[in-house]
Write a structure and sequence with these properties.
Layout: H1 3-10, H2 28-35, H3 37-40, H4 43-75, H5 83-127, H6 132-135, H7 140-158, H8 160-182, H9 184-191, H10 194-231, H11 233-238, H12 242-294, H13 300-341, E1 363-370, E2 381-388, E3 393-397, H14 404-411, E4 419-424, E5 427-428, H15 434-440, E6 441-444, H16 455-459, H17 468-477, H18 481-486, H19 504-518, E7 522-526, H20 534-548, E8 552-556, H21 560-563, E9 568-571
Helix pairs in contact: 4-5, 4-8, 4-13, 5-7, 7-10, 7-13, 8-9, 8-13, 10-12, 10-13, 12-13, 17-19, 19-20
The structure holds adenosine-5'-triphosphate (ATP).
Pfam family, one: ABC_tran
Keywords: ATP-binding, Membrane, Nucleotide-binding, Transmembrane, Transmembrane helix
Domain ABC transporter: 363-596
Length: 596
């Protein structure tokens, strides 16, 4: 079955507005709770980063204090003699502040990057526990957006966010303490305004969260459409639809632009209002400060230092209230990452299940019925009973949609039957480990999948420890050695590099070499000649015959010539049931008990 058709059954139609759905809302506290474990192991570094930045803030207080002395002891009395000492002190403290801030910011970046690395790796590890059909329930492009930009937004919340909050709070204490020390009356007047900041931060934070959810969803749609558009570029060219593809990407981009601008309007309005508040606060200080000056309660330097502390105070206040918008965006991103981590495999390994040992390769299905949870609920396969003796080749044929690829998925346990059993050497696949099934069975899927790596590494993918001689032998067995040797860099040629592309037939022979190298006793070949022209298909027949020789093989094919090479043929009807006339292949379930 081709990938595009599979997508249409598993994922929504691209024109559907639900192309990338909104993930369910998650409260910020829940987000923090869920993602803190990835920060926890760096909590000492978190403390260090916060301490460095807090010390940087403390030394800024000292700088302002020295600035006050400069005014009161040098400028106002016009006494130049005191200049050098104070100026020297200010320069030294400025250098120290710079060093502390640099180290603090570097530590914060280090923690942030490690967090993203760990979380992304954990997500990818989880995604790799899912069978391909489950992965296909989300658009690849959207998954990429979740693994990159959404994870970055979570980071800004749970890792950098923690340092920012702690540093801002500590700085607030330092600057506010210094302001109170200079003039508590003036400080009280200014701090009376703080509830206004708090309430408006809450108001703006909530709105930003709502808008960010939409922006995150739109971001996912752009990446999904981009990925699909580039992956299907050849269809677009062949059907002269390049313009439509560009319009599609632009359309999604414009929707993202609108969503981002709506978020930015609210997110940036708040700091703008804060700037106005800052000026108003400054005017209050000057007004009240002039009064304090007139009654001798404050010096000119003291007043200017107070104003400077106030300016410094606005930094952490802006940072703290800006965090409301960071929280909003992070919470929207977190919802989408949590959604990924909640995808569950329909296939479960029984705890304590033993490995398969010394597999002979007897495959059997007994009374198998299978359906897809994502489908219409009707069975795709019914009453499938078959047996393939060790070393035997069974061809499975039937019309398109009969369930042949579904049978292949059952045989490698990408899914389980709703009824009946699938056994290898008499052991129900549900009673052994997934790793040992995959160790014994090689699936050659319909679409040949190669990596952007050297030809050598592509062949050795299933056995990275293989020697060069073994790799060359596998390529020879697959009739691939000659074309590989003719490439300028031979086995070291990197696919995709300098535009290196292989033909469909060459690609197929490379994947056959990969299967040769694995040398498993059981093979599932899903349409191994599909998509090849007659000449290319003929070229893979001989290597395929060599590959199947002595191995239990289920050969799914529409190719009558290829099916003719099998020891037996099993025909599925359009309704997913075996057609009458199949030679009776008796199977009696899974006689080897591996139950608990
Ligand atoms: N992941 C899925 N979710 C829902 N339905 C699916 C899924 N995969 C396949 N189907 C449906 O199951 C049925 C059998 O599909 P399957 O791919 O097994 O057929 P096939 O015989 O291999 O077809 P072809 O010869 O065209 O490759 C089809 O109706 C298909 O739409």
């Amino acid at each position: 079955m081709d990938t595009a058709r599979k997508r249409s059954t598993a994922a929504p139609d691209p024109s559907d507005d639900e192309l990338v759905a909104l993930a369910p809302a998650v409260a910020p506290r829940e987000v923090f709770h869920r993602f803190w474990p990835w920060v926890r192991q760096d909590r000492r570094w978190l403390l260090l980063g916060t301490a460095l930045l807090a010390l940087g803030a403390a030394s800024e207080v000292v700088t302002v204090w020295l600035f006050k002395d400069l005014i009161d002891q040098v400028l106002v009395p016009r006494r130049f003699a005191a200049f050098w000492e104070i100026a020297g002190g200010m320069a030294a403290v400025a250098a120290l502040t710079g060093l502390l801030t640099f180290l603090g910011n570097y530590t914060a970046t280090w923690i942030a990057e490690r967090f993203m690395l760990r979380l992304r790796t954990a997500c990818v590890a989880h995604l790799h526990t899912l069978p391909p059909d489950t992965l296909r329930t989300r658009w690849h492009g959207d998954v990429l957006a979740r693994l990159t930009s959404d994870i970055a937004r979570i980071e800004a919340f749970v890792a950098s966010g923690v340092i920012d909050v702690a540093t801002a709070l500590i700085s607030l204490v330092f600057f506010a303490g210094a302001a109170f020390f200079l003039s508590w009356q003036l400080a009280l007047a200014v701090f009376a305004m703080s509830p206004v900041f708090w309430l408006s931060a809450r108001h703006f934070g909530g709105r930003v969260q709502r808008l960010s959810r939409e922006a995150r969803r739109r971001d996912g749609r752009v990446t999904a459409v981009l990925e699909e558009s580039l992956a299907n570029a050849s269809v677009a060219h062949a059907y002269n639809q390049q313009r439509r593809e560009v319009d599609r990407v632009r359309g999604e981009g414009e929707a993202l632009l609108r969503a981002e601008l709506a978020t930015a309007r609210v997110a940036n309005l708040y700091p703008a209002l804060l700037d106005v508040a800052e000026v108003l606060g400054g005017l209050v200080v000057v007004g009240l400060g002039a009064f304090e000056l007139s009654r001798g309660a404050l010096t000119v330097g003291g007043l200017l230092a107070f104003a400077a502390f106030l300016t410094q105070l606005f930094g952490p206040i802006q940072q703290l209230s800006g965090l409301a918008t960071v929280f909003g965006a992070a919470s929207a991103g977190a919802e989408r990452v949590i959604d990924l981590t909640q995808l569950r495999s329909p296939v479960h390994e029984r705890p304590g299940a033993p490995d398969l040992r010394a597999v002979r390769g007897e495959l059997s299905c007994t009374g198998v019925r299978a359906s897809y949870a994502t489908g219409d609920g009707r069975p795709v396969l019914r009453d499938v009973t078959l047996r393939v003796a060790p070393g035997e080749v069974l061809a499975v044929t039937g019309p398109s949609g009969a369930g042949k690829s579904t049978l292949a998925k059952l045989l490698v346990r990408f899914m389980d039957p709703d009824a009946g059993t699938v056994c290898l050497d008499g052991v129900d696949l549900r009673d052994t480990t997934l790793a040992s099934i995959r160790q014994a069975v090689t699936l050659l899927p319909q679409a040949s999948q190669l990596f952007s790596a050297s030809i050598r590494d592509n062949i050795a993918y299933g056995r990275p420890d293989a020697t060069d001689d073994e790799i060359v032998q596998a390529a020879r067995d697959a009739d691939a050695h000659d074309f590989i040797s003719a490439l300028p860099h031979g086995y070291q040629s990197v696919l995709g590099e300098n535009g290196l592309q292989l033909s469909g037939g060459q690609t197929r022979r490379l994947t056959i070499a990969r299967a040769f190298l694995r040398g498993t006793p059981v093979l599932i070949l899903d349409e191994p000649t599909a998509g090849l022209d007659r000449a290319a298909a003929l070229r893979v027949v001989a290597p395929l015959r060599r590959l199947m020789s002595g191995r239990t093989t289920v050969l799914i094919t529409h190719d009558a010539g290829l099916a003719g090479q099998a020891d037996a043929v099993y025909v599925l009807g359009a309704d997913g049931a075996p057609v009458a006339g199949n030679r009776q292949r008796r199977s009696t379930g899974c006689p080897v008990s591996r139950g608990p």
